[in-house]
Fold each of these.
Amino acid sequence: MLTTNIWDSFAAFCRGEGLDPDAVLKLFREGGEALALLRQLETGAIADEEFERRFAPLLGIGRHEGLIARLFGGLRPDEAMLGAVRAARAAGVRTGLITNSWGMGIYDRAPLGIFDASVVSGEVGLHKPQPEIYRLACERLGIEPAEAVFVDDLRENVEGAEAVGMTGVLHRDTAATLARLDELFGLPLSSGTSGPPAG
């Protein structure tokens, strides 16, 4: 949710490789080996290179080198969402990131510094929507799940957060998500500016 749509990036990659634009999405929806590989990558059980070597033939492509970077090549920062995180933090709201990692290399340029705490699945051996990953994030932030608002673009991840007591926001559109966050926090986050600290 802090970037442009990941599936659009995957679709662009697939078109560039001469594949069905939904080839990656379909592989994961079918479950099986592709999803099992992703879960291993997300939790740090296999390295980036092994994932790429084993995932490429499932997609039907020959070159596996740099596959993760190529899949994510179309992603761009969502500046409005990043601005909302900064505004919330400036207003005294503790901010956290829970992310299912596609290997650790993609975090080299990630703006982790705008968060008070982060939980990267590959570092902790957990993945969304496992309940433990949400509880760990709250522990690192020093808050209870009932005090947390969780935003994600996958319904299963939002439902996982709600199951431990968080307020969930399913991200489909930046403007709609920001309007909901404005409402929940009582702050003008959609403008990227902070109001007075919450008291």
Amino acid sequence: MLNKAYHTSWLQVLVLVFSSALAAFTTNIFIAPNGMYNGGLLGLCQVIRTLLATKLGIQFANIDLAGILYLIANIPLLILAWRSMGKIFVFKLVLCTVAQSLLMTVIPVPAKPILDDMLTTCLIAGILNGLAVGLMMTCGGSSGGMDTLWMFLSKQKGITVGKSGIIFNICLYLLCLALFDRTAVIYSAIFSVLTSVFIDKVHQQNITAQALIMTKMKGHEIPEAIMNATERGVTFWEGKGAYTGDDVRVLCVCLSKYEIETLQHAVRAIDPNAFISIQEGVHTIGNFKHHVT
């Protein structure tokens, strides 16, 4: 189901809506009742909101200023996404942001935490939130905020989304630690680290793989099909089967885990009998582009 969703437009939309619902559920059911702080841009806006209210007395009745600040802060990130990631990504970004915001207003926040143990709450919330955001990003979407910038850096610099989030949130929570309740901040930091770890586990565009394709076809049809479908380079050499003694061509491609199914379809369409070997988690050095859908 998920492999098809990664490559089918209408299934991607369903997964994006489901992921947005899961993120909204996690925030309202686990995070908000425990008085913890979100990470990323929303967390930064919450800090600014609190400082404006406590230090300058700037606040509005029945209006959360953090939401207004978050909306304003997303404008330059939306422009960045429009210019560097394309209209399709912006559409998915708007879909996720609107769906998550609407669902957060519908899902009721419990009057008291549903779990007594804060560490268990952090663990469950981190897994669910990391799963939600990771699915969004794997399907080419984003919940907005700093996730948009992290995906841009992943595409341009090869920095994983989870690592970028951890670095930013360390700085954010050190600031919170100096300003607010330390217990809530410590558990908030644990939640954010767990979220970032699970984002990297789910976000398949962070996982690099190496594919070896053995085929008896000697023309350029398969290499050209792979390059057109994945925008990846192909290296090949001539080999010989030790058991059969047949001449074979061995093609080598480095790509993200997200692109494996695309490669398989491209190869199978030309040579259904080709043997394909996939090794995940390989390290690449040099000219390897991190594609973002």
Amino acid sequence: MDQLLRHHGDVDATPGLLDFAVNVRGSGPPVWLRDRLIAAVDGLGRYPSAVQDAAARAAVAARHDRDPAEVLVLGGVAEGFALLPALAPRSAAVVHPSFTEPEVSLCRAGVAVRRVFTDAAHRLRPERIPAEADLVVLGNPTNPTSVLHTAEVVRGLARPGRVLVVDEAFADAVPGERESLATDRSTPGLLVFRSLTKTWALPGLRAGYALGAPDLLARLAAPRPPWPVGTLVLEAVRACCAPAAVAEAAAAAVQAVRHREWMAHQLANLPGVTIHQPAAAPFLLLHVPDGERVRAVLSDAGVAVRRADTFPGLTRDHLRVAVRPPEIAAALVDGLRAALATVESAI
């Protein structure tokens, strides 16, 4: 297995650098969420209860118009990927470029994995999915390309006897959560993974959930130990699925579009920079000349960006940058302009 598949943006975000490498909104949870979590600390002297788990699942179910039995609370979406081998697939197809942990987990379990690449515009090509694949994994919107596939096309990948896993870690950052399959209760074999990490700045807590048919969730959860998620995770899930929080996330998604458009306009004016468009997620995929050196120069100047050559199908000249407000993103634009000039002068 290629060890670069285990590389993630937090490795690029060296402490002290202005962080455009990690796709997390803000530097910490909002005050109201922090207060909820602090209030829950007094419950840490007791084991997480079935009542708490049921309350968290009920909150998720209400948010997505589903039954609580169709919800599995996870220690982050990464846990969901780690559990995929429990589904005992014979042949898996992973759509790339995309988040690499699903492939890592499956390969480590000895599952045969077929990489299925998108086209030159990073759009999904359903005809490339092997007919024999009984597990298909893709992201929507996709990390790192920021492409949003249509729900119709994604749903069309379902087949009898196949599990279709859709990573929607960034779906709540898309206005209206358009193209999401989170409320889809009819597509057979569908598993949707959702994260709370990105929008609510909770990477240190590891909180998310899976949506799917109860029997499918039971298979996924079979290897888990007792009390697989803690009290604070269950509280975070309840809090972030409450109507007021959903409304706040929706407003943040609209704001992120404005910030992304500002960044895309500014970056597109830099010489040699190509931005993959259209973009739908809170990050942009860039192609720059001599990307490895540009990234090093940016780091020396105090700016961290995500190397993207660790994503199958991309190159050393690809960089991923998180969307930030203009008052912060201006530093990236200025730094990249200077880095490009430095690289050009060295040629």
